[in-house]
Task: inverse folding
């Protein structure tokens, strides 16, 4: 469309902005709004035309004249957001759409008391681009000097009588002169109390910075990175043919450990001392460490997660140098290989007494012999006592698939799919499920979130009458968490499967895989491998702490690539998985209270659900054997409006506050790996756990 003044075009625009008020009024999908900046004199006439035909859409005379006095006094119409904490200031914006020239007063409250106030009258370019008045509705609330004491406080930002702005409250922590004066006090002070106080404040400050701004370097710098942590590599005196070997080590209390060195491994000179020291400190029965391999003539690190039972079943991720209490190892009896005995000890040990040491303590010079892979696979099959079949997928690397047997009662699964129109996506998802799924005992529940296109409504009605699925109307604004909670309460299944409407099923035995995993009481939720349409990975598990939040793993690799030491090809444990395809028992879901619809209506609710499930002792399993295409967020769209960005920021702030204690300590992700950008792509600088301590 174009705007004309006195017969001359002066501006143009496209009517493609999101207007949910229009959509809710029954007019299309809402992407018909427009915003065209004009510089006109007061009362200057103009007309808006349809650009291709020249037909007049409206003039200034067609616009309603609002009662500015009444509208300007209605505080409920105020819009705004708390955007960020920058230095000692809390920044955001606030305006009254029906009184755009009016300046709104904002205040900062701590424990109900006002600590700062200002007018939202600063000019900001992004507000101009978003059409927020003339762009001069931003604010910067300076925090008082007494709050710069290193104490974290919750600050609520309110706009006049409107109440808290979206994104509020926010956490604020600051120091009077930054970190450098604290460092100086630590270096020069002889007063013990002063040094301790400065140290605590500095530690608080740096932890906050490191969580929000993690750093890393690429794997190409591993040799230099290793020297910075441990000095020069010193190899143990080891036979040239690198046989497997066990060395007995005793500690002062009389306990005896065996240092198990797998075939093809050269331990570093400090390996025994470091492992034994940690075993004594923690009382562990088994201690394992990181290793390195040689790639293209250069060392490359294999950093391991903390105890991961599903990864241990799928891959010998502890291979290399392991310290095992002798009495635990002795219970395994004789096996063909030391690796088989070691694996028996690992599978029979108390998980709480298996400890990871995230330091590189040896070099893997060659892959395991095929006899070792076979021995371990046979041992696992014996330990599982007929509850699963063990399939060797890659004997050279010892990769396995565990096919868990189904319960005798064949539980019912409820597949829950939210949608709003986008029939092309929904039909693909539903048809692929109905045509390819082998398991018979399932139902499909489609949550209809105000669909209005005739072809969508007709398709839903036909499918409902044919018994293909149930349709649950959800007549409210989009709230992913609430609508799934609503559907779960009406589901018949013992197991819930939360499925996006923009997926396409690949693996016919997906439901058997999910049920088999959930037949184990220690498994709380199961997630899938999701692909983009070009067969790049979209989801390979979720790592907590990336940028202080969470991020999908392996979005930088193809679906057939190994990722990081074959993690894309085998099942393993993660802190969370995405609800684009997530399975959980109905009983567990209800016990948790479902998704958090109040604090996380759209984003991160799946991560939060998994973390709460883990708090109750449930393991989260990601498996590549449930495989789907995912046309990521095509249906809902991006957070590209001020309202959506405000909501997204509020959800991020909640996640940072709720799960800050896990931001730097995801047990299924090594503290030596990066937390900036895509996980598994670099070396943490520095490591989140200091070496040699």
Result:
């Amino acid at each position: 469309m174009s705007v004309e003044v006195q017969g001359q075009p002066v501006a143009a625009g496209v009517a493609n902005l999101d207007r949910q008020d229009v959509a809710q009024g029954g007019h299309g999908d809402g992407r018909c709004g427009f915003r065209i900046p004009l510089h006109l004199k007061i009362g200057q006439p103009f007309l808006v035309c349809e650009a291709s035909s020249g037909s007049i859409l409206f003039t200034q005379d067609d616009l309603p004249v609002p009662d500015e006095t009444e509208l300007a006094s209605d505080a409920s119409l105020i819009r705004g957001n708390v955007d960020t904490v920058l230095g000692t200031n809390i920044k955001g914006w606030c305006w009254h759409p029906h009184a755009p020239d009016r300046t709104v007063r904002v205040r900062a409250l701590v424990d109900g008391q006002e600590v700062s106030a200002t007018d939202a009258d600063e000019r900001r370019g992004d507000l101009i681009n978003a059409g927020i008045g003339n762009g001069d509705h931003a604010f910067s609330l300076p925090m008082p000097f007494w709050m710069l004491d290193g104490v974290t406080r919750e600050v609520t930002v309110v706009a006049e009588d409107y109440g808290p702005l979206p994104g509020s409250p926010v956490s604020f922590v600051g120091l009077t002169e930054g970190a450098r004066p604290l460092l100086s006090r630590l270096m020069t002070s002889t007063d013990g109390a002063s040094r301790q106080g400065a140290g605590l404040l500095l530690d608080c400050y740096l932890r906050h910075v490191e969580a929000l701004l993690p750093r890393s370097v690429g794997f190409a710098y591993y040799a230099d990175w290793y020297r910075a942590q441990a000095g020069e590599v010193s190899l143990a005196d080891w036979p040239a043919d690198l046989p497997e070997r066990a060395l007995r080590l005793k500690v002062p209390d009389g306990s005896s450990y065996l240092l198990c060195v797998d075939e093809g491994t050269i331990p570093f000179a400090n390996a025994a001392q470091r492992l034994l020291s940690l075993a004594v400190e923690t009382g562990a029965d088994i201690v394992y460490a990181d290793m390195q391999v040689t790639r293209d003539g250069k060392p490359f690190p294999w950093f391991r997660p903390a105890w991961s039972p599903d990864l241990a079943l799928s891959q010998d991720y502890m291979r290399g140098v392991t310290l095992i209490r002798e009495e635990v190892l002795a219970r395994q009896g004789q096996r063909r290989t030391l690796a088989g005995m070691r694996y028996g000890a690992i599978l029979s040990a108390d998980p709480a007494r298996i400890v990871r040491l995230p330091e590189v303590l040896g070099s893997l010079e060659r892959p395991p012999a095929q006899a070792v892979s076979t021995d371990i696979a046979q041992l696992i099959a014996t330990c599982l006592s007929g509850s699963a079949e063990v399939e060797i997928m890659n004997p050279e690397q010892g990769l396995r698939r565990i096919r868990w047997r189904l319960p005798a009662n064949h539980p019912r699964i409820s597949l829950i799919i939210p949608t709003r129109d986008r029939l092309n996506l929904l039909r693909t998802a539903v048809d692929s499920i109905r045509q390819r799924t082998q398991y018979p005992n399932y139902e499909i529940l489609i949550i209809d979130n105000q669909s209005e296109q005739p072809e969508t409504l007709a398709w839903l009605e036909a499918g409902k009458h044919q018994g293909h699925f149930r349709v649950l109307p959800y007549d409210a604004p989009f709230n992913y968490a609430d609508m799934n909670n609503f559907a779960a309460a009406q589901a018949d299944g013992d197991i819930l499967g939360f499925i996006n409407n923009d997926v396409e099923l690949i693996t016919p035995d997906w439901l058997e895989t999910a049920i088999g995993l959930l037949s184990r009481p220690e498994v709380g939720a199961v997630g899938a491998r999701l692909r983009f349409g070009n067969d790049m990975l979209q989801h390979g598990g979720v790592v907590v702490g990336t940028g202080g939040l969470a991020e999908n793993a392996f979005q930088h690799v193809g679906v057939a690539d190994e990722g990081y030491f074959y993690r894309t090809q085998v099942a393993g444990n993660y802190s969370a998985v995405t609800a684009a395809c997530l399975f959980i028992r109905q009983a567990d879901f209800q016990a948790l209270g479902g998704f958090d619809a109040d604090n996380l209506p759209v984003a991160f609710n799946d991560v939060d659900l998994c973390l709460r499930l883990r708090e109750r002792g449930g393991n989260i399993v990601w498996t590549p054997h449930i495989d789907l295409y995912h046309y990521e967020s095509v249906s809902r769209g991006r957070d590209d409006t001020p309202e959506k960005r405000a909501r997204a920021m509020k959800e991020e702030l909640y996640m940072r506050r709720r799960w800050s204690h896990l931001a730097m300590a995801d047990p299924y992700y090594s503290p030596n790996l990066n937390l900036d950008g895509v996980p598994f792509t670099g070396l943490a600088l520095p490591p989140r756990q200091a070496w040699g301590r």
About this structure: The longest strand covers residues 619-630. The CA atoms of residues 543 and 551 lie 5 Å apart. The chain is about 25% helix and 30% strand.
